[in-house]
Design goal:
Strand content: 15-25%
Helix content: 25-40%
Radius of gyration: 23 Å
CATH architecture of one domain: 3-Layer(aba) Sandwich
Distance between the termini: 29 Å
Mean pLDDT: 92
Shape: globular
Bound molecules: S-adenosyl-L-homocysteine, iron/sulfur cluster, FE3-S4 cluster
CATH superfamily of one domain: Methylthiotransferase, N-terminal domain
CATH class of one domain: Alpha Beta
Length: 491
């Protein structure tokens, strides 16, 4: 095998946020069919599974065939301008389709629906309904209204909605890994970010419903769950007052509050053979307690997505990230001390934020060197209307410069990832098989604890197997392993 050909350099275009997936067929003999296309982050993909479940209860099967659909949903993302443009282009494509099927209902869900509200109905004539992320329980009513030929909209943002009682209909599932949403919204006001406006206030989901979902997945044969939230470290649930802690006169907390470390522990106890992952961690909130919980359980994966955004203190301040470089490095050192060198660390980086100088860009590159990220999602700054940065700072870095800085960041990441992967050569690791290799269907792929993709060959391997492998070769994006043992007792 020529390994050099396997070198995969992650570009911003390939990152998770530009991806989309269509729903697979879940036919239970229902008359009507819904087709869902999802864009953006994992939370959006996870929401599409809630939407599919709500629609199923109301007489709709999902389909992957657009032509068979009575209802088409685009679950959209607003994080960068390009994400919104992709959806606009898709709508142009649907124009042709609707000419053949005039009765088809087209709905925009998710963050773009929330951001643009009625404007979407005005600007995109083809759209029949617009539904924000907290209004999915209302979908059956809204679809019924649209089917009568009227436009329908609900962009109400809730302080309580977590869809905790809804059992998601798993879409495009490999039957091995699933996502569990543990909280919604975001209360951080990073100045570049549209999420607090599109997803509303932060709220945590009842831990019992999270555990019930994890147990159900385990009983159905799933081997890995990823706990999802924009900022999982600020997960906080108490029985009183809609998730607010009860305080006594001295201001002391007297209700039992569940924080992220405790939740993580409870999910890890569902089964020692169920792998637990989580995303996203915020550098200002990740505690040593969380790190010790990760260390304590073999089935909690040793991998932390800890987006830094920039390596410059001044830029971090402008971004309102509420930590500086020294704080961030302290958290990285804590990870290294508690979880060791092998713990995977990944990041998000924004190139060319408002007024960023060449020197500050160099600070980002030097921070990357210092941390040695295994992986990063890398973007150039895209101004989002209504955000603090759009109001306060000029988007003054020329596009050419943003792109060049991004290319330098991508290049740096690729070198560092290659170095990090080389450290794995000769090591024994446990991977969980979750699919076939992109390059050759004869090979299978799995992930090690640090979230790195490991390619293996072996006729007797199947999805969901834990495999002890020895790492033989690597590229910047992938490890290649030799199978030593299938389903070892210890994961
Ligand atoms: N809650 C997560 C991030 C969610 S958005 C966190 O705080 O880390 C995912 C990533 O998109 C962000 O980390 C950031 O790197 C990027 N992003 C967000 N807004 C952006 C913008 N306006 N332009 C470019 N990238 C952006
Ligand atoms: Fe956006 Fe910041 Fe919230 Fe992440 S923490 S979703 S970047 S506002
Ligand atoms: Fe996009 Fe909304 Fe997620 S803006 S990144 S889909 S929270």
């Amino acid at each position: 095998m020529d390994l050099i050909k396997d070198i995969d350099i992650l570009s911003a275009e390939e990152a998770q946020v530009c991806d989309f997936k269509t729903t697979e067929d879940h036919s239970t003999g229902k008359q009507k069919k819904v087709y869902i296309e999802s864009y953006g982050c994992q939370m959006n993909f996870s929401d599409s599974e809630i939407v599919a479940s709500i629609m199923k209860e109301n007489g709709y099967d999902t389909t992957s065939d657009l032509k068979k659909a009575d209802v088409v949903f685009l679950n959209t993302c607003s994080i960068r301008e390009k994400a919104e443009q992709t959806v606009r282009n898709r709508l142009t494509h649907f124009n042709g389709l609707k000419r053949f099927k005039p009765g088809m209902t087209i709905g925009i869900l998710g963050c773009m629906a929330e951001r643009l509200k009625e404007k979407l109905l005005e600007e995109e004539k083809i759209v029949d309904l617009v539904v924000g992320p907290d209004a999915y329980r209302d979908l059956p009513n809204l679809v019924a209204t649209a089917e009568e030929g009227l436009k329908a909209i609900n962009t109400f943002l809730s302080r309580e909605e977590t869809y905790g009682d809804i059992s998601p209909l798993r879409l495009n599932s490999n039957g091995v890994s699933a996502f569990i949403s543990i909280m919604r919204g975001c209360d951080n006001m990073c100045s570049f970010c549209v999420v607090p406006f599109t997803r509303g206030r932060e709220r945590s989901r009842d831990p019992e419903s999270i555990l019930a979902e994890a147990r159900d997945l385990w009983s159905k044969g799933y081997k890995e769950v990823t706990l999802l939230g924009q900022n999982v470290d600020s997960y906080k649930w108490s029985p009183e007052e809609n998730n607010k802690a009860r305080l006594n006169k001295k201001g002391e907390n007297i209700s039992q509050v569940i924080h992220f470390a405790h939740l993580l522990e409870m999910v890890a106890q569902v089964s020692p053979q169920l792998r637990v992952r989580f995303s996203t961690s915020h550098p200002k909130d990740i505690t040593d307690e969380v790190l010790y919980t990760i260390k304590k359980y073999d089935n909690i994966c040793k991998y932390i997505h800890l987006p830094v955004q920039s390596g410059s203190d001044r830029v971090l301040e402008l971004m309102n990230r509420t930590y500086d470089r020294a704080w961030y490095m302290d958290r990285v050192l804590a990870i290294r001390e508690i979880l060791g060198e092998e713990c995977g660390i990944s990041s998000d980086m924004i190139a060319g934020f408002c007024s960023e100088t060449e020197e500050e860009h160099q600070d980002t590159l030097s921070l990357m060197e210092q941390v040695k990220y295994d992986f990063s999602y890398m973007f150039y700054y895209s101004e989002r209307p209504g955000t603090l940065a759009a109001k306060k700072y000029a988007d003054d870095i020329p596009l050419e410069t943003k792109k060049r800085r991004l290319a330098e960041i991508i290049e740096k990441q690729s070198q560092i990832a290659f170095d990090r992967n080389r450290l794995d050569l000769g090591k024994e690791q446990i991977i969980l098989i979750d699919g076939t290799s992109k390059k050759s269907i004869a090979d299978l792929k799995g992930r090690n604890s640090a979230n790195k993709v490991v390619i293996v060959s072996g006729a007797d391997l199947k999805l969901g197997d834990y495999v002890r492998v020895k790492i033989k070769e690597c590229s910047p994006a992938t490890l290649f392993g030799e199978v030593l043992e299938i389903n070892p007792s210890q994961i």
